[in-house]
Amino acid sequence: MILWALTLLLAQSPVLDFDYYKTNVEPIFLERKAGFTRCVVCHSDGGRVGFLAELESGAEGWTAEQSRRNFDAIQRLVVPGDPLASRLLMHPLEPEAGGDEFHNGGRQFSSQDDPWFKTLVAWVSGETGE
Ligand code: HEC
After folding, report:
1. Is 63 in the pocket of ligand 1 (CB under 6 A)?
2. pLDDT tens digits for 3-20?
């Protein structure tokens, strides 16, 4: 009985959708929000928090192979099926809206209704409609 329940639990943990990531999530890291620096500027320097590949000079986005590497690196920052336990979502979120402690890159998600935040929720929840 316990084993059965465990199997059910594990089976419910969604597998993150790469195509949705590539089309909807990755552009967030490249886009500029008024008053903020773009994620890619601070998160592609290869350091401790460098979860994005460095863009090739002049490139406006990542190659398919780089996107795959970004996708893999970001796994460390998300809990499939549990957006509110995912650092990728909670760290840039305004603390008054539930975000966690200080983020050097600012509170780029002003609330849980922020379109970027909602895109990330859909992705991490596995509710990508694909
Ligand atoms: C001005 C530079 C800067 C920008 C822009 C920036 N960040 Fe950060 N971010 C940091 C630094 C520095 C840290 C590590 C120190 C800290 O937690 O503030 C960090 C930490 C994080 C972490 C935690 C990483 C870990 O390994 O635990 C996440 C997730 C994150 N940022 C996401 C984002 C997202 C998403 C964006 C764009 C919406 C963004 N950041 C924009 C500088 C930035």
Report:
1. no
2. 777 776 666 778 899 999
